[in-house]
Design goal:
The structure is a homotetramer of 207-residue chains.
Chain A: H1 5-33, H2 40-47, H3 54-57, H4 61-85, H5 90-107, H6 109-122, H7 129-152, H8 161-174, H9 187-200
Helix pairs in contact in A: 1-2, 1-4, 1-6, 4-5, 4-6, 5-6, 5-7, 5-9, 7-8
Chain A binds a DNA duplex (21 and 21 nucleotides) through residues 11, 14-15, 18, 39-41, 49-57, 59-61.
Chain lengths: 207, 207, 207, 207
DNA sequence: GATGAATGAGTTTTCATTCAT
DNA sequence: TATGAATGAAAACTCATTCAT
């Protein structure tokens, strides 16, 4: 509206875009090589600029990882919260959560790999305290869901819930390490297959 | 010949012991913090010596990782080969392989974590070519086993074998990240539970 | 000639004003933090602009220091030269010089601090040769004055003139580090007190 | 006594010596060029080693400044405290404090210059909080002494004590900027001359 | 006049490694 | 066997400066 408004908007939008672009590049390399093993220069090279120039956009290497992870987790929890709010049965909820997780892997594969591989060390620094919080919420969500499912008869009565929680959590997220968007299997198909294996196992049905 | 012969022998044994001890310390820190994020000084500190002193025992940081990984893989394959040589049915073989894997996790947890997290990057260097070989053998073993199981009717006919291979591989090895020797569940018990989940899933049996 | 002539004039005046304003800001920060420890960005922030924008006004960081110092020294010497031209007795001249110095501190405190702290290093570069010239003139002026005062009986006969020169010089200029314009004591009052201490010391008069 | 005792001692002594030596070199360059304008490489060059090697001895550039300043201040206060404990009259105490200050300048000239030029900025960081404490104690000591002297009739009744405190403080410490150990005037002689100027001024005695 | 994005040279710092003792 | 002191290469980061818009 104001004559300067469009400028301000386009500028701020452009900056946001550039940041996102650079973070995408960084996330890819962090995921591929590991955070500690990646140098700022490698990221800058991939972005077509000099190492120092990255510091115009970001405070530090750590703040890049921070932004990658927090952005990813925010989006992830939005999708999880939507599912939980739907208040479906245990089985359907589990199904939706797993599908959402594979959708997240599809959309943010490098961020997932980074989270998977580095969150343990990063969480030691106060700046990354939210990683621990997220982990707790995650555990509570799954354990709660599994316990409800056992009560409701959706899951086996003799399920070791804490163990099953880890089983599912690991199994799903580690898939980010090999999942290739655009490969033989789409995220949806992998999700469906994994769901079947998790629910019914790999043995033939006795029925 | 030398009057110190007996001494020399005992020294050499002691040296072997010391190496193993140091490698155990190194593996623990590598696993905890990541290989690239761990400094030689941290390892030396934990061993109660100065950084330079480690070089009396080892050529380089890389050679420590090398020795940790190759020792672990050698042992692992010995146990796998024994199982494969027994020529049991697909289901029993899978059962034994998973049990052996958890036994390995129990005995070499840091090495497993190191393998899990770093083998991808390390394998790029020729020195670690054996990592790739092991990975291939591993995949062939599992894919072969699963295909045989499908043929024999031990596993579901509609199993996506490559996917199931990854499912099992990831699920088992990632457990090293949280498994605590001496915790609530022994390696054997975790193996049994995981086996049930892998074979039958988490749903109640329709039977 | 040009139809924008009047504009151009007012613009040029405005430019001069803006320069002076920016130099004032820069001088303040240089004085507070030290020249080397101050970044162009800090100056720009304080001026409400971006670092690059300062380069529209000034060639370089060095040229800012240059302009701050040369402006200050030019004014200072004008006031000194007026005093020297009056050809008064040694005591009265000293009195006037000290008063003028405190007036300069009052008017150009940051410039004085900058001169005090940085002239030694800056003077190494040819661009700042005038700092050395000023220093020499300064010394000659004071040593000459003190020697004359000793000859005329205005100052103690046993005065170590080079030492007294430094004593006075340091004592006066270093006051810039704590003098606060608008504080308890005006520049005039500080000058008077300092003059008394320099002339008569802090002991009571035996008279 | 113990066979390893001599080794341990000589080692630790050697390290202390080396540290002190390096700190002396660093202090000299810091004083000459300013702390911020001095690079670690310059210090290392002067010490005949590579920049990185300095980090075997010191954590950071800042910690070098820290150690230089704290060592100096500790020694300075030891000498001041000895004087204050003697409980002499105001004039004699002032005399002794000024002499002690010039002795400190003689022994630790670079540290004094560093303190003089950089303590204001450094004191902003919590690590250098002791600089502010020292400054307060310093002011209290001098103000107390001057007030006592005025009461006892040792100093002029109309003395502006806070101003006189600054006058003396600055006058003495700034001398570190030009004082050359081994020059025309020894520290003792400078102290004596300064003391005369401070007590009696530069005018001839009316007596 | 000012911005936003970059450069490039330099800074502090890190760290695997070496080596005389 | 281990220490203490260093090396040297590379890391993260800084900052004065440039320039198209």
């Amino acid at each position: 509206m104001s004559p300067r408004r469009r400028d301000a908007d386009s500028t701020s939008t452009a900056r946001t875009h550039r940041r996102a672009e650079l973070l995408g590049i960084a996330a890819g390399i962090f995921a591929e090589q590991g955070y500690a093993a990646t140098t700022i220069r490698e990221v800058a090279d991939a972005a077509g600029m000099l190492a120092g120039s990255l510091y115009y956009h970001f405070d530090s290497k750590e703040s890049m990882a921070d932004e990658i992870l927090s952005t990813f987790l925010t989006e992830l929890w939005e999708s999880y919260d939507r599912i939980l709010a739907a208040n479906k049965g245990a089985r359907e909820t589990l199904e939706a959560l797993i599908a959402a997780s594979f959708t997240a892997i599809d959309a943010h594969r490098p961020a997932v790999v980074l989270y998977q591989n580095e969150s343990k060390h990063l969480a030691l620094s106060p700046r990354f305290a939210y990683l621990n919080e997220s982990r707790s919420r995650f555990r509570d969500m799954w354990v709660g869901l599994l316990e409800r499912g056992v009560r409701e008869g959706a899951f086996r009565a003799d399920l070791d819930v804490p163990l099953a929680y880890r089983f599912i959590r690991d199994t799903v997220w580690v898939a980010a390490n090999w999942y290739a968007p655009g490969g033989r299997l789409s995220a949806d198909m992998v999700a469906k297959q994994y769901l079947t294996m998790i629910l019914e196992g790999i043995q033939p049905h006795p029925s």
